[in-house]
Amino acid sequence: MHSASSIKQKFLKKWIMGLQLCNSSKKNMTIMERRKAIKLSADLALASVRNCTTRWSRALVASASQNDDNQALLQHIIGSDAAKHKKASIDVVANSTTSVAKKIASKKILKRSWGIRRVRKLSNGALKDPPYSIAKRLVKKRTQLLKNLVPGGESMDAISLIEETLDYMVWLRAQVDVMRSLARASERLDGK
């Protein structure tokens, strides 16, 4: 594992390269275009520093590679392996689509095989879900929310999702630290 400072240095170097390329490719950007360029170059720099070895990093590359306008940026940040990563990323996206469809179909079959769900009755005759059912529903909601937050999370099982989320959080933390340092340095320069 790399030290936190070397990770941040590598990220900053790749991110600045991406920002320079975005700036040189289009001089008069709107605020929204500038925002998208900053986010895209930061995401690709993060995936690049992570060497596209995790699902979330491959999902970020796959998302960027869907737009032909991003090919130069991909090539510049990811490097000569961009085509290899693009193919692997497209495979990840394709597999996630089919696995999600399979999961939905298998859940429907499983629900049908269970038949009618058993519920408890309260003393007044009203039906009440068992406590484990409520907890199960809450876990399911939170897991779905997490799947939507982590790039590529839609196709992951619960264990993989937790591992990828923890890894993604560590790398996002490094990204945030670099961006904060850059903002502080910029404020100091503006203040002088």
Automatic annotation (TrEMBL):
Alphabetized UniProt keyword annotations: Transcription, Transcription regulation
A GO biological-process term: regulation of DNA-templated transcription
InterPro entries recorded: IBH1-like, IBH1_N
Domain IBH1-like N-terminal stretches: 5-67
Domain of life: Eukaryota
Designated name of the protein: IBH1-like N-terminal domain-containing protein
Source organism per UniProt: Eucalyptus grandis (Flooded gum)
Upper taxonomic lineage: Eukaryota, Viridiplantae, Streptophyta, Embryophyta, Tracheophyta
